[in-house]
Specification:
The protein has helices spanning 2-19, 26-44, 147-150, 173-178; strands spanning 47-49, 62-65, 71-76, 89-98, 106-110, 123-126, 161-166, 182-191. It is an alpha+beta fold. The termini are far apart.
Length: 193
């Protein structure tokens, strides 16, 4: 009897300790992200369409939700030269904004318009590997390289300009481990010649 009581007490203590844990679960992070994306879409007046336009032309605030949950709006589809998977070295410049649990967007990184003094370098990756591929440096824009930033290259060519809403699971390691989705208000791609 005493042994059964001790086991019951150990189980109660274990349940008490587990219930006091304040860490959010992965599911809770996903739910928080989904609500933040819905708020961003509503606040910015974005319209989500079901299918990629057959002619490739998007209206100004029209986004398509792709199979990997990345939202894409094509401003300019580029010159028609497509990236080759595993081969093409891509340089991109972008304006990125955070929006998680916020009623507004806030600037994260802008290497599109700032001069060479601070964010002057493009970030680079090989299409398909989707990991930073340049020389080692401590440069914030390089943290953004991931599947989400590369996804538009399946649909557009060199010189393309797009907008993206990227869930944290499609970003680079830093964003995945901190559960931070990103809104790219403008991304421009060029390829190494």
């Amino acid at each position: 009897m005493k042994r059964g009581f001790n086991i019951l007490m150990i189980l109660c203590v274990a349940l008490l300790v587990a219930s006091c844990d304040k860490t959010k679960s992965y599911t809770e992070h996903l739910k928080e992200e989904r609500k933040s994306i819905e708020r961003l879409i509503k606040r910015e007046g974005f319209k989500i369409i079901d299918d990629y336009p057959a002619n490739g032309v998007f209206k100004e605030n029209e986004f398509v939700k792709l199979d990997n949950d990345v939202y894409l709006n094509v401003i300019d589809s580029g010159n028609g030269d497509r990236a080759i998977l595993g081969t093409t070295k891509v340089f991109c410049r972008f304006e990125s904004k955070g929006f998680l649990n916020s009623d507004t967007t806030y600037n994260m990184v802008n290497n599109l318009t700032y001069g060479p003094t601070y964010y002057g370098h493009p970030t680079e990756f090989v299409f398909g590997y989707n990991a930073y591929s340049g020389e080692t440096r401590d440069y914030d824009p390089d943290l953004f390289v991931g599947e989400g930033l590369a996804t538009p290259l399946y649909h557009v060519g060199e010189g393309a300009i797009v907008r993206l809403i990227v869930p944290f699971k499609r970003m680079g390691n830093y964003f995945q481990s901190n559960y931070i989705p990103v809104y790219f208000s403008k991304v421009k791609y060029t390829f190494e010649k």
